[in-house]
Design brief:
heterodimer; A: about 280 residues; mainly alpha; MetI-like fold; two-stranded antiparallel sheet; 14 helices; 2 strands; globular; B: about 325 residues; alpha+beta; Rossmann fold; OB fold (Dihydrolipoamide Acetyltransferase, E2P); 2 domains; six-stranded mixed sheet; five-stranded antiparallel sheet; 9 helices; about 25% helix
Chain lengths: ~280, ~325
Amino acid sequence: MARAVTTNRKIAFTVLAWLVGLTLFFPVLWTILTSFKTEGEAIATPPSLFFFDWTLENYVEVQERSNYLRHVINSIVIAVGSTTLGLIVAIPAAWAMAFSPTKRTKDILMWMLSTKMLPAVGVLMPIYVIAQSLGLLDSLSILVVVLMMMNLPIIVWMLYTYFKEIPGEILEAARMDGASLGKEIVYVLTPMAVPGIASTLLLNIILAWNEAFWTLTLTASKAAPLTAFIASYSSPEGLFWSKLSAASTLAIAPILVMGWFSQKQLVRGLTFGAVK
Amino acid sequence: MGAITLEKVTKKFGNVTVIPGVDLEIADGEFVVFVGPSGCGKSTLLRLIAGLEDVTSGAILIDGEDATGRPPARRGLAMVFQSYALYPHMSVYKNIAFPLKMAGIDESVIKQKVEAAAGTLNLTNYLDRRPGQLSGGQRQRVAIGRAIVREPSAFLFDEPLSNLDAALRVNMRLEISELHQTLETTMIYVTHDQVEAMTMADKIVVLHDGHIEQVGSPLDLYNKPANAFVAGFIGSPKMNLVEGAAAAKYGAKTIGVRPEHIELSTEAGEWAGVVSVAEHLGSDTFLHIQVDGIGQLTARVSGEFGVRHGDRVWLTPPADRIHRFDGEGKAM
């Protein structure tokens, strides 16, 4: 009897999980389907889900109007660049906080995290003016640096959580074995924290890839990534749902594929430390 | 060479003094065991010698040279940790080779040394495995191998057998003792297990609340404990300590008599009591006896001694086996 209850509960939870999953995925699915409709079908009521005349004309037009590849390359440079730079800064920072903590370490971590609570627009003016006076508006380098700084608290927090799980005795053993601080980090800490570093890297690439506020504000055309590419299709000249959907689909496709292949790593990263 | 001297070494963590000032001489080639209850400062003292903790004041000399400020790697010491502290992402070979690699030694020399150490420790067939694929005993041997290849002037062991099961612990105890006889290198070994201390040490250092209570050979400590703490800590089962009128009769505040020295009779003796628990080990029996006017005492008798729970027995402490302690617990 008890087993039957457990099975019923399992079925109920599975159905619920699928419902939540499909609800979350529905807007993405709708966007993808709309990208294959004509503009007329896209705004038709009642809307048709699958039974319409499938067309690729939106993709052709988007390709003709924009340089998709350039935006992709910009997005890759910004996402990978800011994440790599973030890791270079965050690994030593998280090491210090995890293995050589002081009375203020927790406060510093909270303070770092609190900066995420500040609305980005609150620092828009100073950052814009700095970028302008350095002549870095519409350049990839300013976006790499700004996005690195925006995501740094999350990178440090995640790495700190991973590093805390590594027994301090192993690092002490490395010290006894003659490893300098640098060698200790390179040969012992980093290889042991690879799963944690990989999850942090993936999550931050996704965050940087999807970041729209700074990429739209600090770029015009040269350094514009995919977020700016999408935004260019919701212009004052009117909403073109099909083309906007085609652009969105093209923009999210690479990160969706990456997320699909790395989902195991991502889930592990996001739930790390929750269950011992 | 591996002579180590501690001169007035103190260690404070914030306002808490963990080691209030320790002086100790460890001769080259000696097997010294730091023993004491949990929190007595024995591991801290070892970590101070290793350089993993900074000394608050005082000096640590290694072979006559002041090593107090030297980083761990430059003290010429090797340490074996309680948790083994192996590098989980490296093979056994790479684990053992790691200190040599850090020292920038030639790859062919590293190979030769690692293979020699693996041969000594019966690890030759496991060199390609990761630590996760080894048993507890094998992991501990890898940790020892990693220490051996450095050819250190002294080995530091921090409760290395605590994570092993009882049978394996006895085997590893023997292996470490044999290793000491082969290498003739100074070894400092921390344990809370007085049996390990008694069986392995040339010299035992008994610690309590950061103080050294007594330093001496295992039999010195067993036969002539300097105070009631050492008397109670060394020996298994522990020494019976009796206060009150029974002690006053011998002109002491406290008297101590070891369970194996108590003479037991079913007919007559100095103290009378009732057996509350009899632990039969086969060769021996430990009797826990509720003695009238004194309390619980333990006696160790031969396995053939036929008494059971509830039997009335008489105990006599032989005069020449009684340890007498004054009001401060010091031996008289």
